[in-house]
Amino acid sequence: MLSSLIFDMDGVLVDSMTYHAQAWIQVSREVGVNVTPADIYEVEGANHRVGLQWLFEKAGRELDPDMYDSILERKIEIFTSIADVKPFEGMVACLSVLKKDFRLAVVTGSERVTVESFMDQFFPGIFDVIVSGEDVHYGKPYPEPYLRAVEMLDIGKENCIVVENAPMGVESAKRAGLYCVGVPTYVSPDKLSEADIILEDHASLQEYLYNILDKGHLCDNSGSSEIL
After folding, report:
1. What are the tens digits of pLDDT across the range 15-37?
2. Long-range contacts of the stretch 146-152 (C-beta < 8 A, 24+)
3. Whole-model pTM?
């Protein structure tokens, strides 16, 4: 019996990753590292420290730990100046309905100040638990973020499902032993092949979630990587 639903933020709740990608590309170029939007989407979901280290390694560079804080501050500055972030169509209404029957959580690699800003702006009072990139030592693709959410929700692993749109996020959820629904917002569906079920888009996601309500919180957590 499901009692809780756990959502990634960027790419699941809000359409924000194109702005994150632009900000990362600009700040990377400023420090002499060239990356592409595809590179950014590949590490989507990781906290900024892990993502930054990965991008430097991909470019054949070593990240000086003393540079981390200044790069992150600059990235946030660029993102804030260019971002015109909005929730995906229908998600606010869907979550408002789900809130009546489920405890809801957000698990994201983004910094807490950004997460709380989006939650206050778009989803006030909706989420019971928020786990940001700053709240864990090992972010996605490690299982710690989702294990932390399960602990904070005080539920069994079988009592929740995760909704993810990023390969590292799906890996994190599965390594935590959770049922994962994949939505390929910015990547091809094959990149989410570890998910238990892959939905076509956000309209399909909302239909899936409403169907859970209609079934009285029952969800078939069987099968593997089925695309609906």
Report:
1. 988 898 899 889 888 888 888 88
2. 146/6, 146/107, 146/172, 146/173, 146/176, 146/178, 147/176, 148/107, 149/6, 149/105, 149/107, 150/6, 150/176, 150/178, 152/105
3. 0.85
